[in-house]
Amino acid sequence: MKGADTVMASVVQYNDWLEEECGNMAREGLRTLVVGKKKLTEDQYNDFESRYNHAKLSMIDRASKVAAVIESLERDMELLCLTGVEDKLQQDVRPTLELLRNAGIKIWMLTGDKLETATCIAKSSRLVGRTQDIYTFKNIANRSEAHLELNAFRKKNDNALVILGDSLDVCLRYYEHEFMELAVQCPAVVVCRCSPTQKASIVHLIRTHTGKRTCAIGDGGNDVSMIQAANVGVGIVGKEGKHASLAADFSITQFKHLGSLLIVHGRNSYKRSAALSQFVMHRGLIISTMQAIFSSVFYFSSVALYQGILTVGYVTAYTMLPVFLLVLDQDVNAETAMLYPELYKDLLKGRELSFKMFFIWVLISIFQGGAIMYGALWLFSGEFIHIVAISFTALIITELLMVALTIRTWHWLMAVAELLSLCVYVASLFIFDEYFDREFITTWPFWWKVTVITLFSCVPLYILKYLRKKFSPPSYSKLSE
User: Fold this and answer.
1) Of the four listed, 162, 216, 308, 465, which is most buried by Cβ atoms within 10 Å?
2) CA distance linking residue 268 with residue 191, whole number of Å
């Protein structure tokens, strides 16, 4: 039988050297493993097998009875040996952790190792900086000790924290809010002698008390519960098997890939998803605003402004390609994002998907829908079909110009999508005679009216973007200059 020294110390026969040698190996940064054995006579084995089979057939509380029978066998075992294995770090672990710290990401290390081993690994991996002090939380057992230790820790909450799992349980039992309030302010936290259940509980506590998004990274089966408890789980395929990678949202082969996963792909995914959701909302709200204005002007009639294929074309052939190609947009390339991880800090503010940004896009949609609809009514030429042609053409061009206004980096796919969408719409003007007057759309009044309405709806936003870039430029624009 093999296991951690804390578990095996109560299983093996009494000895006076196990604890001392485990401490010596742990201070050298070695992961210890205790091995023991027990010889059974034939009568002892038959007795164990009889009790084990009887427990397995029990209909009530079967699991605890089976565990009790097995535990009765795990006593007075002969101590065979104590092993110490160096837990060699993967390549580029140190620069990856430094990259994540510079990006504003707080890192907690949850491990089952001894306190001394965990401290050595935290230092060797640069989880704790060279000049950074470490506060080792004392082993506590009751409420009064927890209160005294928390008061001492409160004076040094700028240090990295190292705490035992048992001490953490005591603190959380009596002073959960106070401890979490102090711990989240630490630059780094190391929790040692941590069980799989404790790992999941700590992740849940961080999510509850901070309201932040959590990412759990593990490479073994004992990390599965922690990975599943986090908002995002990352599993590393290692020598311990694929349990963690199969249970995770993302699977990587090396820890160093975590940097590009978060700093490059995670950042781009957040910004692209935000831009796409904003445009999908804008595309639906602007046409709804136009329909509401049209109905109110014409005595709240139930006549649809755009009927049949126009509505279908608006959300598909005319605007779909440029809008959905926003998922390929990027403000900086991967090399720049990895070189300046501080860019990731902008995401921590959550401005791209905030209520403020939502209401800004609502106002933009209402302004542009009102500008297009009232402009078309003001330039009304006498027939209803002319309102449809003028307003719908201005709507399509406005949507394409808004994509051009929002995109940060032009690429050939976006240019082709913009031109293709415009060409498809121009061609449909001459194909769908039942919606457009072919004679009217080839005249000069049609095009100057469309141009005036489009400029009125888009130019103010272009001016605002220029002023914002001039007086309050985003962080990525400073790097491109």
Assistant:
1) 216
2) 32
The answer to whether residues 186 and 148 touch, using CB atoms and an 8 Å cutoff, is no
> Are 209 and 181 spatial neighbours (Cβ–Cβ below 8 Å)?
yes
Contact 87, 238 (CB under 8 A): no
- At 411, phi and psi to the nearest 5? -140, 170
CA distance 255 to 69: 41
Cβ-count burial of 156 within 10 angstroms (0-12 exposed, 13-18 middle, 19+ buried)?
middle
3-state secondary structure of 3: strand
329-349 confidence digits (pLDDT tens) = 888 888 888 888 888 888 888
186: left (phi > 0), else alpha (psi -120 to 50), else beta?
Answer: beta
Tens of pLDDT, residue by residue over 241-250, are 788 888 899 9
pLDDT category at 381 given cuts 50, 70, 90 is low
> Cα–Cα distance between 381 and 62 in angstroms, integer?
85
Cα–chain-centroid distance for residue 255?
17
Looking at this protein, which amino acid is placed at residue 113? D
Closest to 351 (Cα-Cα) out of 272, 274, 408, 267: 274
How far apart (Å, rounded) are the C-alpha atoms in residues 41 and 164?
A: 40
CA 390, CA 410: separation in Å to the nearest integer? 29
Calculate what percentage of the chain has a pLDDT beyond 70.
97
Report the alpha-carbon distance of residue 282 to residue 286 in Å, rounded: 6
230 has pLDDT over 90:
yes
pTM metric for this prediction: 0.77
Q: Which residue has the tokens 């060409």?
A: 423
Cα separations (Å) of 164 from 121, 152, 177, 207, 443?
Answer: 15, 16, 18, 21, 81
Q: What is the mean pLDDT of residues 110-117?
A: 82
Q: Pull the structure tokens for residue 180.
A: 């979490």
